[in-house]
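To illustrate this point, we now present one chain and its tokenised fold:
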Amino acid sequence: MTVPLLSAEGVSVRFGETLAVDDVSIALRPGAALGLVGESGSGKSTLLRVLLKLQPVSAGRVLLDGANITGASEAGLRPLRRAVQVVFQNPHSALNPRSTVHDPVAEPLRILGGLDRTRLRDRVAGLLTDVGLGAEFLWRYPHELSGGQKQRVCIARALAPEPRPLLLDEPTSALDVSVQAQIIELLRGLRQRHRLSYLFVSHNLAVVRLLCEEVMVLRQGRMVEEGPVGQVLEHPREAYTRALLSSVLPPGITDLLGAEDGS
């Protein structure tokens, strides 16, 4: 069996008397796109922070390439920091208004080292082109960008260290409907070009269907349903999952994506 790139086994997280995550296991395998779905307060964002080693666990363990990193020091987490990147929900708060687009995309490359100024600039320009922007955006400031363009910059920054899995925390929910479709289409293309694995966190099963093959459903910190996304969508076992299915795609988004389901 293929060793997961990133996994958690039997993890629990407690905040005082509240059990935010209750004995959950999750595994992200090479080339996979896994959706993690639940309403607000379901524990999905806490579980994401566990996988990023930003949230200590009360029980269980976190593994990178099969190696236990649960108790690793910050120095011991360097492979994780390079191998795993994340794109958050709100691109507006993710960018420093005083820095040009070049700076946040270049930052992880500077940390890795090995590039002179010219090669660094060229690499940043290439990353911006890869996400549908281009070199003309290098020296623009965040206030000169639309919401979708800001999220593309955040995606370019996440791609800079050449991650294997990319964790996506509701990356479209703060955007207009037409822009949501464009970002989903971009993510689909990036996955094919770079052979990325995705963990896509969302409250919307319908959006997850457009990106993922597998899905896990969380409720009150517990995993209540999992399986192939088509099976879960068409034959949900849990009433909670059926309720989540009422959060359908916004009007027009499927048309903008074009060929979904062979249409």
